[in-house]
């Protein structure tokens, strides 16, 4: 059967219709199921792990290459992920690889339930006829069957959890690659869904059968209790039902708290991602404390939601669940005794075992209901992402003479259009009713002043901005996009240029020559195989621009869209790129430019003004338009040097250490060996220190004591060991049960308080270290790696550590109490416990080392997954324009396969250890049966021993599981502690800084004396003996080719890089003796890319909120605010400071964003102003405005200007030229 009749939302242009043979897919699924069974994927023994575990234990390390993974696994699930992306969930569930394990695990769960319930029934037979070997053998047999069936079900569910998680993550990523401009999904939400939500979903699948098996098991146990105690037991179960129903309303509160936690987590991760993407600007503007306060405020709200959830779970639920078996048994026994029935061992101990067993399903039922509520927020979040609109397919095969057409196109930015209720209509829709046609195989230039809408139109063409109905935007042919802010993915230079296209050496070499990259590659260790960091953080601006251009040219797309491709390079390189590359393109080329001198060389020109096309046509027609005021283009920007020769080799950038750094991406650190016990001390100190430990230990001892008393109280009651009246025994038992509940609740209270306190302090400490470490750290760390620790590992100390700690304390108290009572009942059992304890410890040791190393590897393998997600979300428009979706899907499948392989091994290890530990417990039961058969135990001893032998298996399993799990989950603390130990030279330098007057610097003189700068891991200095004297109030221009060291001067002045030799003095004060905060406060840097954050205009002008509105409006007026008012026409000027600006200023033009940054500089009133290519991205008129403002507003200030344009340095007092890190003119 062929799938052709797709849902309507799929047919309406979301993706090309794919023909998938459903019968072949399901036949393949059935084949895969048979292969999995043959390969023993569901094998309960998991014996293949033993060799791997011994190898891990021998070296205390697990290498990625040892994982049994295949990228084909994730590739196989792609069709199922496609069903999920289309929201065709029924087809996914019916697939054999989902349906078969779902049904099989259900059958095994039923077998395990029946066997578990049968054990108390057989115990009663054993107590009635202790010498009958058949009953003893049957009791041992059903216990063995319960263990094997239950653990087989667990392994199948673990395999299923990995499959479903893989399918959903593939579907979410495939969806994000196809998001339209209208999407409201943030990067933080996608990261949160791929980490926390997937973890919650896997945990849900592991226990999904509890929702029906627990009630079934509970009903069977109730029937057995009724058989023993009659109708008097119903009263006890009414109490149980009441206690369980009391948790229903609390479950809704748990879900609500979790939903709020996840929402705040999404906001926190989004802000963190934006902050670390702009960390250089944050450091230069001294915004670290402001960003940290903003994150801390969100984190505090998140911790409030976390505290509410943890208190409900660990104080309310667990304490009630601990009371359930005792109170149920007590009320039932009182009712039974009140009915004139004798309480003897043959009745009490089988019933007690049943009541203890009922605690398990009752607790599981409570947790299952809680999980049903808790998983809903995650399901809704995944559903919301899958409901996001996908990009319309705009390309067609029309061979006409038109390459791009817009008909009445109304284009807006998604962040504004999606929040129209809080945004003025004029703000949301920036281009209205555009109609144009761009001819095929012609060079078309789009020209206009800053804010005219050029970049917005380009983004509308490629789908990054929203085209509102009934707009028509048609792109007839494949498209390549070269953005104004070049996108560079993490990988080699060649990978960035090819972007999945086949490598053709001749064409590739020609592209390198045309884009002036050959000389750059000679300075890269490894040439074009040199690794570059994500977003090109370790490349110069010119190198990033040329790599982006080379990618567009190599793609051989029918339409190449270039958004101001020459702004980041100097005039010589720009002329080379224009003459030898752009003008020679045979395809349709659309170039956004600010350079008037390029217009006469184009075939077609579009002129935009205030979002309206005012002229279009040939250069001869357009340049006569009144817009140009009859100018003869003599005002066009002049070159800084004569035209260069045609040979691309002559454009040779100076060797720059940044190039060497490009391949020095740091490898993620993994700790080897056992977990440092000092980490527990670090965590406990953050939790509250010695008073906290003492209080928790005291409560734990009281809990153990009450459990011991509770276990032997009924034996005293039956034997009347204390010679008390019956009501005294009843009152004492009630007191013991209530004491247990109180102490368990107190344990929860202290655990929650300590855990939340530790989470708060650790998060604050990690952020403080990250924001105060040097830039070299961020240059060598992919963003996904940092976000992984601030999302997955923070979630680990928020949830998983307290789960492990609470489980360990409860399991330890139960195991200790049961073991003491078991030993008291018979000295013979002490001998049986010794070999069993030895075997258990050996299993624990072997498992513990392997589980720890696998968990460490899983944490490392998560980072590449998040790195790919972050990269894809940031470059979605470029990926769609280049049709590189399949390339990124393949990259995601590769890293996801490794991550899922790690989780699969971790789950297999859990199966391996639980099977063996429970088999040891079954052996303990067998030893008890032997002692009963030999008549070495009396009725009371036999009843108590058999009861505890059955329950001790659960306690032993829970204890060992929690003990190892705590050690494994300390991996999150281990990884975060690495960030807590980061070197912080930026804060350390403040301790040696001498006292400086608040008015420093008063004059603003700057002296460079023999300055030499060598970047970390570099072999050559980037600055060689640089000397420069800048008098107070002087205006100095710095020019030079890309890589000549211009940016290094600014980095050295602001302390972003340390000096290898020499000194820098401001007002005769050596900057080495001044704290970095004072140093950066004295120097204000206006960079090429304005640093703007998601927030209001007021927040961007004055992040510290120290200025008055009147001052901010005055600063806007000083920078020609009317240039921005076109963006906010119709907005009340008094409330214009409240207008929203998107992260990075994406809803502003480059010129408008730069004017906002300039207004911020005017507001700051610095004595020293540094311009780092500040006008490279703006048009000539805006450049003239900025230059005029600089001359007027900073007349008495010291100005240091790095520029490529002659107009930018024409008014300087002097201009110096750099080459190879030296001053040459």
From TrEMBL:
Membrane protein topology class: Multi-pass membrane protein
Membrane-crossing residue ranges in chain numbering: 218-245, 312-338, 692-718, 730-753, 808-834, 919-940
**What SMART domains does its record include?**
AAA
Where does it sit, as one GO cellular component term? membrane
Question: Origin, by domain of life?
Answer: Eukaryota
Q: Which SUPFAM superfamilies match?
A: ABC transporter transmembrane region, P-loop containing nucleoside triphosphate hydrolases
* Keywords (A to Z) from UniProt: ATP-binding, Hydrolase, Membrane, Nucleotide-binding, Repeat, Transmembrane, Transmembrane helix, Transport
Q: Where in the cell is it found?
A: Membrane
Q: Which Pfam families match?
A: ABC_membrane, ABC_tran
Q: Which InterPro entries match?
A: AAA+_ATPase, ABC1_TM_dom, ABC1_TM_sf, ABC_transporter-like_ATP-bd, ABC_transporter-like_CS, ABC_transporter_C-like, ABCC_6TM_D2, P-loop_NTPase
GO MF annotations for this entry? ABC-type transporter activity; ATP binding; ATP hydrolysis activity
Q: Signal peptide location in the record? A: none
Q: Which residues form the ABC transporter domain?
A: 411-635, 1006-1224
The ABC transmembrane type-1 domain is annotated at: 103-366, 701-938
Name of the molecule in the record: P-loop containing nucleoside triphosphate hydrolase protein
